[in-house]
Amino acid sequence: MFIFFFANGILALLISPFGFSEYGLSFSIESTLTFAFAMMRLIRYVSDINYHTFCRMILLPGSMRFTQRSDRLNRFWM
């Protein structure tokens, strides 16, 4: 969001000398650039979705009960 805000302001200042008919150009250019940046971040996040889903979990001491019970059941059935 900050990228869009600051870059749009800078582009508006750079394009303003070209006249009234070019006022929307900075908005359209910055919208396209912000969309491309957001898509790159989304693709990077989705490519590591397994890490974000499983490896970043915080395991509390009481949360290991299910794991211990499943290990016991696996030993019982094998």
Features:
mainly alpha
Strands, count: 0
Approximate helicity band: over 70%
Can you tell me the residue ranges where pLDDT is under 50 for at least 5 consecutive residues? none
The secondary structure category is mainly alpha
Q: How much of the residues is beta strand, in percent?
A: under 5%
* General form: rod-shaped
Radius of gyration: 25 Å
Main beta sheet: none
Descriptive notes:
- This protein is mainly α and 78 residues long.
- It has 4 helices and no strands.
- The chain has helices spanning 2-15, 23-47, 49-55, 65-77.
- Helix 1 (2-15) runs antiparallel to helix 2 (23-47).
- The model has no long low-confidence stretch (mean pLDDT 82).
Task: Summarize it.
By secondary structure, the chain is mainly α. The protein has 4 helices and no strands.
Question: What's the topology here?
Answer:
Blueprint: H1 2-15, H2 23-47, H3 49-55, H4 65-77
Helix pairs in contact: 1-2
